[in-house]
Write a structure and sequence with these properties.
Elements: E1 4-9, H1 17-25, E2 28-33, H2 36-46, E3 52-55, H3 74-88, E4 95-99, H4 102-107, H5 110-115, E5 125-127, H6 131-146, H7 149-156, H8 158-162, H9 173-185, H10 192-212, E6 221-222, E7 225-226, H11 228-235, E8 245-247, H12 254-267, H13 276-290, H14 294-316, H15 320-324, E9 327-329, E10 338-346, E11 352-356, E12 363-365, H16 367-372, E13 380-387, E14 394-400
Parallel strand pairs: 1-2, 1-3, 3-4, 4-5
Antiparallel strand pairs: 6-7, 8-9, 10-11, 10-13, 11-12, 13-14
Length: about 400
Amino acid sequence: MKQYKVLWLDDEHQTLESIIELAADAGIELIGVADAETGVQELNSQNMHYDAVILDGKFYRSGEEQGARALGNSAFVKVAGVLKEMKAQGKILPWFVLSGQPNFVLDQDDWIGEMTDSDFSGGKIFDKSKDEDVDALWQSIKDACDMLPDTRIRYQHRKVFEASSERYVPEASVPLMKVLRAIHEESKEFDDTEQFNQLRIVLEYMFRAANRHGLLHDKCISDKGVNLNQSGLFMSGKDCNVVGVKCAKTHFPNMVSHLVWDIIEITNSGSHSDDEEYGKLMLSSHRKSVGSPYLLFSLTYRLMDILIWFKSYVDENPDIDKNKDLWVSLTPVASGAWVPGFLSSVHANGWGTFIPDGSAESLSIPPKLVSDNGLSEGTRIQVITKPSPDGTKTFITDIKI
């Protein structure tokens, strides 16, 4: 049975177990809050995880209020106003009124009419005291939700949105939904840079979540943001020479590591790379030449696989302190000083591979430096390095034998 998640604002929700059970039997999970202030906070932060909202006619404005005298219409009006604002911004949540207040049901105050629109169940008030009304409410909720594109997307991709819930990568739900909307609409006019950036943003959120769970070193995240290259290296068990750390355990399986690097490298063309304008042109040229959005689709589905893997990995490794015990400090490859090591290989294209002493992380030697110095495999050499402008790579600038 399809499961629907509904935010329920009612000051008595904790005592109405029968309503909760009836909703569960109908495939609806009710998440109860007692006041408008808490409800608005939940709507602002978690609206992507809800399918609909149920309001009592009269409930508290804040958690500090108590007693019958504090109950009034203002809490209802506040939440209804927020729902209408969300709709104006493109996020539609159907909402319904389930009230046990006799005067509210019978009188249906004049201001109710002002709140009536297509997302307010045609203005109908469902009565808690009538079994037929409660049953009709569950069906109305499901009918309304099934008409919403976001709900259809969320349930078609249920496992990935579970991975973007509060415990895992909660920030990912909004950018992920933006990309999936573009995919399901199959629009040929979407903004390449915007959509590819959404994928990159989701990956950054996943790495931030990995850091919260102790799976990613603090040094891979700075005030400037997530260093995707160093984060990918760390979780792949590789030396992170730029930030001077590595992990004693390889978190990413080989396939996940490949998927992550595909996304990092390709989305870099559509984001804030050093060659940003060239990257944008490259993506635009590709889309123009093939006339399809399938590159975006492909990367999106790869990212979804990564998020689903991440959820299971977090569940399997819940001990944050134990995860952090795997963090190892390195002596980074020095910039501007001679670094000893050896040439491990020379490739057909002329590039060489340099392995610094005491490090498993290799550096590439440009073909000109290889040929000018007459290098061959196994030669002991020393090199001078410098970081790239964005600090994500290390370049060899000089060699001596």
